[in-house]
Amino acid sequence: MLSFLTLGKLQAQSESKVFDALTIKSSILGEDRKYAVYLPAGYEDSQRSYPILYLLHPAGPRGTEPNQQAWIYYGELKQYMDKAIANGEITPMVIVTPDANFGTVRRSYYNDADGKFNFEDFFFKEFMPYVEKTYRVRTDKNSRAIAGASAGGGGAIYYAFHHPELFSVCCGLSAAVREWQDANMQNRYPDVSESKLKEWFKTYDVFNIIRNMPDNEKNQFKFYMTCGDDDALSVNNAALHDVMNKAGFKHEFRIKDGAHDWKYWRKIMPDFMTYISDSFRQ
Predict the structure, then answer these.
(1) 223-236 pLDDT tens trace
(2) In terms of CB atoms within 10 Å, which end of the chain has fewer, N or C?
(3) Within 13 Å and on the Cβ side, how many CA atoms surround 248?
């Protein structure tokens, strides 16, 4: 029989860990970038490799800090994951969130139209390789997922369509997706000509990407979208759902009671995390 002391040590060894202010030096961005990581219970005691979820944070809502800590604190990620994994509802996984630095004007998950802040290049050329060398994660497509809320939801969708060979599943939560006429990019980049902006925006116009996608390039990853019925972005998300239906792109779409806030994203966490976990288990 285990003593209480021994049992306590075993329990302590098996606890999950969160590090919410780690840094990576970026040559592309010319500065250090912060990130957060969730390591599931048992990670430090085993030699097992885990599936990985890249979880992108939103640009708000107002009154919250839009950085790598958002999913940890406002999303209560650790509390949910610990309980869901312990109950066998979710497979253990490593989760990482890079800081997209929305506290600075114009910064986002894009490569900027003016070339001053190429976050997408950083993500794929520096951040992902660093993470997958630093942590014991599986690096095959079927063990890698991307998700995000609001601006992070848009980022997750752009990234999955730009690199479908890398991700088995994408979840866009209240995603900030827009067509050109709704994007208002001229205000964001006043020094870039409209013609250049339109050409640049084609890379991030997921509506037209899907409309023009050859049949043999469709359905390369599983796709889940959800949005609150009181969210202004529900119109855009419903429009994207319609475009995907017409294009024959298989996906799941949910409109549920809620707004564009952390209350909604916490409420839907079991849904999208189960969707991701089930994909990993298959």
Answers:
(1) 999 999 999 999 99
(2) N
(3) 7
